[in-house]
Write a structure and sequence with these properties.
This protein is of the alpha+beta class and 552 residues long. The chain has three domains: 175 residues, Formiminotransferase, N-terminal subdomain (Formiminotransferase-cyclodeaminase, Chain B, domain 1, 2-Layer Sandwich), CATH 3.30.990.10; 147 residues, Formiminotransferase, C-terminal subdomain (Alpha-Beta Plaits, 2-Layer Sandwich), CATH 3.30.70; 203 residues, Up-down Bundle (Four Helix Bundle (Hemerythrin (Met), subunit A)), CATH 1.20.120. It is 53% helix and 15% strand. It contains 17 helices and 13 strands. Strands 1, 2, 3, 4, 5, 6 and 7 form a seven-stranded mixed sheet that branches. A four-stranded antiparallel sheet has the order 11-12-8-13. A hairpin with a 4-residue loop joins strand 11 and strand 12. Helix 1 packs antiparallel against helix 2, helix 13 packs antiparallel against helix 16 and helix 14 packs antiparallel against helix 15. The protein is globular, with a radius of gyration of 28 Å. The mean pLDDT is 94.
Amino acid sequence: MEQLIECVPNFSEGNDMSLIKSITDEIEKIDGVKLLDVDPGKATNRTVVTFVGSPDAVVEAAFHAIKKASELIDMTKHKGEHPRMGATDVCPLIPLSGISLEETVKYAKKLSERVGKELAIPVYLYEYAQPIKERSNLSVIREGEYEGFAKKIKKPGWKPDYGPTELNIRSGASVIGVRDFLVAYNVNLNTTSVRKANSIAFDIRERGRVVKDEKGNDVHVPGTLKSVKAIGWYIEEYGQAQVSINLTNINIAPVHIAFEECCKSAEKRGMRVTGSELVGLIPLQSMLAAGKYFLKKQDRSTGVSESELIHIAVKSLGLDDLTEFHPDKKIIEYRMKKDSESALQNLTVKAFADLTASESPAPGGGSISAYMGALGAALGTMVANLSAVKKGWEPRINEFSDWAEKGQVIKDKLLKAVDEDTAAFNRIMAAFGLPKNTDAEKQARKEAIANATISAIEVPYKVMRLSHESMQLIKCMAEIGNPNSVSDAGVAALCARSAVIGAHLNVKINAAGLADKSSVEEWLKDAGRIENEAMTLESEILGIVNKVIEKS
């Protein structure tokens, strides 16, 4: 698995876009990284930048961005609502895939040492990179902010981990570390009072608040949510106060739960939440979970499309309250997609049919089989959703909703296979085009063709399995689903069976060109079984469908 690290440096400039671009240009110069998001805030005078890449490339890009920020940002002139201590205030590294937290710490230390040594900027490690527990919390490190750091840096216990023990007057100090994926999230309020906003922040944050008991002693009262940090502030740009939240573990405290807790606290205190905003990016799963949460509150089926779940999440959380919310820019998986991905999926029905009918050999039967399978799964899912909302069937909504969710998963995988099949065909063509002048080139070409052919067998075999799996949903919907949609279940069965048989043809024709079939032998045996079962299931489903139609 490819090693990927996310880096989210926060720079103390949110107004001068040309200056911000000069910093992000340094990131984009480095091969092996991709700039995902640049999120400036005028009132906070702070920009959150997000990029991902291989560990070494991320460290290189981060260093050059920090260097450029130190050249362009003068902290003696900086003012902003957000707590800060340096031109590059904080620079976390977050492991995304193929790399552990412990391994990522090594890269954080490598970056910190270079920043301290080459840029003469004091650097403090935080979170997982900081071995001293008492100074691992970012807010504790940053106490005193830039204005108080010239004295703080001299205090016992506050010697920087790297770099000079004198504050860099122009650039301040920086915090570099390793943390889990964090979502920065602001909840908008119908008040201008920072005190009121803070009261909500204290209600929900894990740290809670300190109050006096009857004897005048300080008593700590924890907030309602674990893994949540929050403060209240006023944003002049918006003319309203916000609860600024860091969700440090979105598995423990998801975005939608933080939003709901703010709503409860605000209502209790005579205020109203008007919406919210994301700072930086959010994982797709967080948006889907939010969409499902709010659909369940409405007693609606959660087995809807990914785009519908995101739409519900945006509207329910009010993410478009202050600015338009663009999923392709704010959801991390969407930002990481290559331009070539989903090329066929994104075509109109007419454009896809026209392309298939052209002189190009791809998309061909494999992609069409995958698409037929997707249509079958989609129809079965439609029947489940129509059953979930059928009047008088309300007690069964969870049953049908669960089936619809399963159908959506199968449908999405089959849609992905539409492009995967064409990509596999293109890899075979590319392998045949490799040079074959020397013995070494001939051997490399032979291996490339074999590997590409195996991939071209694997994709339609997967289409067979998924389409066969969808027939369980389709049969169930024919049996117990909304009888007014039983004919749709019948058409779904026809699509699924055709997808299985069509994909099997592709499995067989690609396997015919493979000299050594040992690696795909099990697939070939299983494919025959799947086709036989699919034909039997189709017959059973059509029998059920026709009986229901006859009774109607």
